[in-house]
Amino acid sequence: MYGTLTAGDRAAVESVCAEVVALTGVPLSAVELSVRWGVRYFAALECCNDGQFCNLFEVEARTLRETMLELRVDLDPYPFARALTAYWRDPPLQPEALDFLSKCKVPICLVSNADRADIEAALARHGIEIPYIVTSEDVRCYKPAARIFAEALRRTGWRRDRVIHVGDSLHSDVGGALAAGLRSGWVNRAHRIHDVGNHVPDYEFENLRGLMALVTAAGK
How far is the C-alpha of 186 from the C-alpha of 130, rounded, in Å? Predict the structure, then answer.
C-alpha cells in the first residue's frame, strides 16, 4: 500500500521531525533525526511479533520518545504520532496507481504493515475498492513475518505458486515473500528513509507500469 500504491512517508516523517527539531533544539537536522528514528522504528517492528504486538501508532510514539531520550530530551510523542496518522489516512496516490488498478485484471490482495483504520480511511479517501486486505494489525505481526502472507493466502484461497507479492521494501516485501515461498517484485522508487536487506527480487520495477507490463504479458 504505502510506497507502492500511495506515496511513501518520507516527506511526512521529515515534516514531523522538523517540528520536533524546532521545538526541542536538538543538534540534528530533520533528515538526520528521521533516519535515527527510522532505524529504531524498523528495529522495533522486528520485535512486535509472537505475543508482543503493538500497532503502528504505538510503535511510532514509543520509538520517537526513545529516540529523543537518547538525545536527552523527554518529549510527549503522541501529538507527532497523531500527525503521522493523519498522513496515513490521506496519503497522495502514486501517479500511475489508479490507471494500474483500473486496468489490472488479476485479483489483488493488499498485505500491508498498517493499522486497519488508517488503511481503510486511505482507500475510502481515494475511492479505491480492493476485495482483500490483510493488515499487520489484523494478524498481529509485521512483514517480513511469513504469518501475514499465510493469512492472505488463507483468506483468498489462492495457490502459493500463482501469487506474486509486490512492494517497495527489500526487507519487508521481498524478504517476506521469500520467507513465505512466494515470488516477489520490488517497486524501486528510491524514496525510502531507511531500508535494510540484500534480498534479490524475482522482478524489479521502476513503478507499477512495469508490473502492469508483466501482468499483461503473463495473461497472453
Answer: 21
